[in-house]
Amino acid sequence: MINIVTGGAGFIANTLIDRLLEQGRRVVAFDNLKLGRLENLSRFYSHPGFQFVQIDVASPLSVCKALEDASNLGPIDEIWHLAANSDIPSGVANPDIDFRDTFLTTFELLKAIKGLPVKRFLFASSSAIYGDQGEIAIHENIGPLFPISNYGAMKLASEAQISAAVESHLSRAICFRFPNVVGVPATHGVILDFVRKLMANPDELHVLGDGTQQKAYLHVSDLVDAMLKIRDLTEDKRAVFNIGPVDEGVTVRWIAERVADRVSPSARILFGEGNKGWVGDVPKFKYSTEKVRSLGWSPVLGSQAAILRAIDEIACQQGA
Amino acid sequence: MINIVTGGAGFIANTLIDRLLEQGRRVVAFDNLKLGRLENLSRFYSHPGFQFVQIDVASPLSVCKALEDASNLGPIDEIWHLAANSDIPSGVANPDIDFRDTFLTTFELLKAIKGLPVKRFLFASSSAIYGDQGEIAIHENIGPLFPISNYGAMKLASEAQISAAVESHLSRAICFRFPNVVGVPATHGVILDFVRKLMANPDELHVLGDGTQQKAYLHVSDLVDAMLKIRDLTEDKRAVFNIGPVDEGVTVRWIAERVADRVSPSARILFGEGNKGWVGDVPKFKYSTEKVRSLGWSPVLGSQAAILRAIDEIACQQGA
Predict the structure, then answer these.
(1) What are the pLDDT digits (tens) for B10-42?
(2) Of the residues A5, A10, A270, B107, which has the fewest C-beta atoms closer than 10 A?
(3) Residue B177 to chain A, least CA–CA distance (Å)
């Protein structure tokens, strides 16, 4: 059974591919290597069930050709669509980035698989589609959705396309609404940012915003567990699932202090103003994960434990 | 005060422009004349406050230039974004149509107005964003949204972009979620279709589906009343409003019979199978309009009265 993983050289795909290969599936990873990194894949090269194709999923001719080649290996069972812009602030400054790398990748992929007997389409969506909902507990069944970043907007736009494609040619689709996810190989995010800053200047760490932003974090190992469990237990033609930790999360201040503990304990931590790090950042967030927990999943690591493990992993990755 | 109306040569814009001019606003209408028709605008040409620009809003250079020219007339107060593909079945067969005419028009327009002091962005969204929600009364605050046509998907994708743009550069936006709207100048829709068929063959009328699809219909005069009222009374930065009649709607069978009464009373009406007319059609639909009614709006015409008036208007338009 062939599984396609787009964004295959990126952060979350790395753990996912590992688990899919472990489950005996053949994996063909697509990536344009714009944000993904080839060295992330090196651990899979020796595996006979693994193959990498460097293509841009937003390019219709390339994606059709790559899918045709993959089909020659055997029927394509599942498509895990993880390719997207993951650099949210860059997409706030320039809407073309999320348009191309998040929206168009979905659009061209959905067109290209028309006619292929794909059993399931699995999409990496995001809590960013909800926008700033204040103190409300965010269930999957709330509305209206008011994303405040182009990233969130193009994830929601992708969910919409996928839903329409189920009507016309997809047999089944699941959208996983990711929380903030941490772990390695880290390509972006607050921990990597702090580790890099402290390695460059061990005396001071400048933090965007006043450090009071509080968010829940999930370790990538728990995220991938949830995705596989949801895939196995969901028979609906269309489904959306919030995935996230069950706790209230941690503040940016706490993360900054813990990174300093690990990388440079004597560093002074300096905070900015306001409780938004950048335009499009949601300051506070109450995420309901009741639905995925009703399937019997719960995270092994809470936000604190996930952050602590990820700090250690990322510090090692960066050689700190 | 300059008001831009995109899709200005289309069906709904025709009544909207009339009302805006009546309110003393200057109107600049944009249209690519792909679905819109120049003759729809002829009644405005003598009005000193009206101007038409033939451009494609999906073309970035044209839309920037047209907005710059409009700005030279005075500050742009409001943008009414109605340009879209309105031919839902064509977009089911070819996703490029809704992508280009509905999604990209919004995308390029939002980019082009960055930096202009637009007070309000008003968007013609659709009940199609909800998809088939079965027997649930569809309020604005329900989820998840599962559009079943590319039309609905690209309307939802447009709402998402608009929401993100409010965070970065728009001061205020309202999305009107339209029901099925009837009236003249008719460019598409079930009544025009039946009138044309009966004029071509007065003996028989072939209806897609079994005729049991039941939908609520609003007359365009009531729709535009609601839009103007919502604009005047809503101060939220982001708002979405369902607009629709308060009744349960009418069946396709009833519409077919009434069109036959008007155009060719002796015609035999022949039905197909299934309760969906085409892929992407939502068979039954309970639309909650509580929110707009709480502003003091209610339609003058219910579904039946709206259809009867529209049949007469469209029959006249077609010379029947």
Answers:
(1) 999 999 999 999 999 999 999 999 999 999 999
(2) A270
(3) 12
ipTM of this complex prediction, to 2 decimal places: 0.94
- Is residue B319 left, alpha or beta, with left meaning phi > 0 and alpha meaning psi from -120 to 50? left
Interface test with A, best of B141, B161, B276 (most A CBs within 10 A): B161
Report d(CA A253, CA A263) in Å as an integer. Answer: 15
- Within 8 A by CB and 6+ apart from B314, the residues are B182, B184, B186, B191, B192, B195
Contact at CB, B153 and A164, closer than 8 angstroms: yes
Preceding peptide of A299 cis, ω within 30°: no
pTM to 2 decimal places: 0.95
Q: How far apart are CA A241 and CA A229, in angstroms?
A: 11
For A52-79, write each residue's pLDDT tens digit. Answer: 999 999 999 999 999 999 999 999 999 9
Task: Judge: B156–A153 Cβ closer than 8 Å, yes or no.
Answer: no
Question: How would you class B98 by CB atoms within 10 Å of its CB: exposed for 0-12, middle for 13-18, buried for 19 or more?
Answer: buried
Which candidate in A167, A241, A282 is best for mutational testing of the B interface (most B CBs within 10 A)?
A: A167
pLDDT class of A145 with cuts at 50, 70, 90:
very high
Report the chain A residue with the minimal C-alpha distance to residue B161.
A153
- Chain B residues closer than 8 Å to A145 by CB: 143, 145, 160, 163
CB contacts of B166 in chain A (<8 Å) are 146, 148
Whether A253 contacts A211, CB under 8 Å: yes
The rounded Cα A201 to chain-centroid distance in angstroms is 29
Q: What is the DSSP string of A20-38?
A: HHHTT-EEEEEE-SSSS-G
- Both tokens of A98, joined, read 């999320």
